[in-house]
UniProtKB/TrEMBL annotation:
A Pfam family that the UniProt record links to this protein: HNOB
Transmembrane annotation, as ranges: none
Segments forming a coiled coil: none
Annotated GO MF terms: heme binding
Name recorded for this polypeptide: Heme NO-binding domain-containing protein
Domain Heme NO-binding: 2-160
SUPFAM superfamilies noted in UniProt: Ligand-binding domain in the NO signalling and Golgi transport (SSF111126)
Length: 183
């Protein structure tokens, strides 16, 4: 997993919880890297699992909920860090349906060793979008947070249904988004 995900995670912990909590989880997580990350470095994704697990122990909040909080935060950071990816995109569905064939393709150009999931995305109609997440890594709840962050970032509201279809070691999750009419 790229260092940028770790540096953003630790910043979120400092902001949402406190610098002391960030120090404590680094100490308790028993990390091969020692908790020192650079944005362009690459680290085993199990370090993220260890950090989130340590944060869960420290705060009493479930791991899945913490990954969602982080995903939401991370989307806001991506929007600030990579404004070019948002040029000409005017809706959350318009953004989400191009994560696989555009966003993560560009991410791979920037970081050739990035470990990215696969999304199979289809629009059922103007209100409903299905995104199927597949990965060898257990970050479906991070994806859920990113999806919610994306909706928020475009000022939209949707119900997001989460179906775990995993079998074996891989993670496979179907997200069904249905826009909620605010008018
Ligand atoms: C501007 C938008 C985005 C950028 C710049 C971006 C970039 C990245 C980067 C740098 C990684 C780390 C790769 C690695 O650790 O080696 C990543 C992983 C990931 N991305 Fe994106 N991403 C974006 C949008 C999204 C969205 C909207 C979703 C969800 C719908 C998503 C889902 C994920 C997930 C779940 C991972 C973790 C790896 C895995 O699950 O296998 N990303 N992305």
């Amino acid at each position: 997993m790229k260092g940028i995900v770790f540096t953003e995670f630790l910043e979120m912990v400092e902001d949402v919880f406190s610098p002391d909590v960030a120090d404590a989880i680094i100490e308790h997580a028993n990390l091969p890297s020692g908790g020192v990350y650079t944005a362009v470095g690459t680290y085993d994704h199990s370090e993220m699992v260890r950090l989130v697990t340590a944060l869960s122990r420290e705060t009493g909040t479930e791991v899945d909920d913490l990954l969602e909080v982080f995903g939401k935060y991370l989307f806001g950071r991506f929007r600030a860090l990579y404004p070019d990816f948002f040029t000409g995109v005017d809706s959350a569905f318009g953004f989400l349906e191009h994560v696989e064939d555009y966003i993560h393709v560009e991410v791979r150009k920037l970081y050739p060793d990035a470990e990215l999931p696969t999304f199979d995305t289809r629009r059922l109609d103007s209100e409903r979008l299905v995104m199927e997440y597949s990965s060898a890594r257990p970050f479906a709840h991070l994806a859920n947070g990113l999806i919610h962050g994306c909706l928020e970032s475009f000022g939209e509201t949707a119900e997001v249904d989460f179906e775990d279809l995993s079998h074996g070691e891989d993670t496979h999750t179907r997200f069904t988004l249905r826009l909620v009419d605010n008018g």
